[in-house]
Amino acid sequence: MTTTDLRIGLAGTGRIGAAHAETLKSLPGVGSVVVADADTARAQVTAAKLGAECVPDVETLLAAGLDGLVIATATDSHPELIIRAVDLGIPVFCEKPVAADIRGTLEVIEHLENSQVPVQIGFQRRFDAGYRAARAAITSGELGWLHTLRATTLDPAPPPAEYVARSGGLFRDCGVHDFDIIRWVSGREVAEVYATGGNRGDEFFSTAGDVDTAAVFLTLDDGTLATVSLSRYNGAGYDVRLEALGSLGNAIVGLDDRAPLRSVEPGCPPSTSPAYPNFMERFHQAYTDELLAFLSVVTGEILSPCDPADALEAFYIAEACELSRREGRPVSRNEVRH
Fold first, then answer.
1. In a 3-state reduction of DSSP, which class is residue 188?
2. How many Cα atoms within 13 Å fall on the side-chain side of residue 268?
3. Sheet of strand 68-71: strand arrangement
4. Mind listing the pLDDT tens digit for each residue in 247-274?
5. Which residues of the chain register pLDDT less than 70?
6. What is the rounded distance in angstroms from the CA atom of residue 312 to the CA atom of residue 303?
7. What CATH superfamily is the domain 6-117?
């Protein structure tokens, strides 16, 4: 199969789904995009804007002769949609997570064990040019041996209270991207975590049993140390960075003129470029490249670059962080493995 005139379905036309629909329509090789959403009116608006097809429900979508399916629906619908599509022989791209919890993720993976139909999970940082360059620098030995990784994900403002209540918490919803990229960039596994968090913002975080700011200390399986800083209240702008510090050199991702950083040292002028307002703008090209990779997965040119087993490993780390925060102690990754 080639990437000529592929028919790609999209389930879910919320913010990320609508963005995916627009991207898919622009990609070479995509002949048609077919969208569906539980909110039919929302799907119709997206379809009309892009000149895509709109069908009334997921059942019709799955029967629409698709070459591939992109899932951008609510998390609790992911397992069923992945399994139904794969059972029909339709390759799947699904936004993270695979499922709302580890047990659900394992059930999906178990179902897929005897299937040759590929599934790609959406961890877009793997497709960002900066993270790819950092990985190459580490893999080549250019940095020597790593002693420290420092990851940062700081949102400029919190999501709505209703989102927080069903998000799974800061570690599972937000930090999981850092956990995945630390594994991917370093090529190592996380052996132990220690996590803590705080609430100095809106009360709805505490009501949901969540935190609005967190600090995580990770020990990798080769002894490399890593830290992850997370917050929903970074008023300076969207700040996502990774520092890879080695015995011979370093590589820093996200340190461009739009990073929301201000030096107070004399003689250091502030940046005149606006800070990134959100993840959609910061990772626009990465999202495009991620879906381009999915088209190559659909046509059999490449294997899935991020399969459900990868997503499970990041989820284990997030789960260990939540346990560590609640109990105030270091937690081994093996404690949460099933």
1. coil
2. 7
3. 53-54, 30-36, 6-11, 68-71, 92-95, 119-122
4. 999 999 999 999 999 999 999 998 899 9
5. 1-4
6. 18
7. NAD(P)-binding Rossmann-like Domain (3.40.50.720)
Residue 186's CB: how many other CB atoms inside 10 A? 21
Spell out the residues 6+ positions from residue 41 whose beta carbon is closer than 8 angstroms to its own: none
Q: Are 37 and 21 in contact (CB under 8 A)?
A: no
Percent of the chain scored above 90 by pLDDT? 97
**pLDDT at position 338:** 75
Termini Cα distance of the chain: 38
The H-or-E segment that residue 278 falls in is none
Place of tokens 């969208």: 35
Look at the domain 128-278+314-335 and name its fold.
Dihydrodipicolinate Reductase; domain 2 (3.30.360)
Domain ranges of the chain: 6-117, 128-278+314-335
Q: What pLDDT score was predicted for residue 1? A: 47
Contact 109, 338 (CB under 8 A): no
Which amino acid belongs to residue 256? D
Question: How many Å apart are CA 39 and CA 20, to the nearest integer?
Answer: 17
How far apart are alpha carbons 100 and 172 in whole angstroms? 9
Nearest to 8 by CA among 16, 304, 20: 20
DSSP label of 91 = -
CA-to-CA distance for 11 and 39, rounded, in angstroms? Answer: 11
3-state SS, residue 76: helix
109, 312 Cβ separation under 8 angstroms: yes
Quickly count: other Cβ atoms within 10 Å of residue 297's Cβ. 21
Burial class for 107, CB neighbours closer than 10 Å (0-12, 13-18, 19+): middle
Say if residue 323 is exposed, middle or buried (CB neighbours under 10 Å; 0-12, 13-18, 19+).
Answer: middle
pLDDT confidence of residue 4? 65
Residue 1 to residues 133, 182, 202: CA-CA distances in angstroms?
31, 34, 51
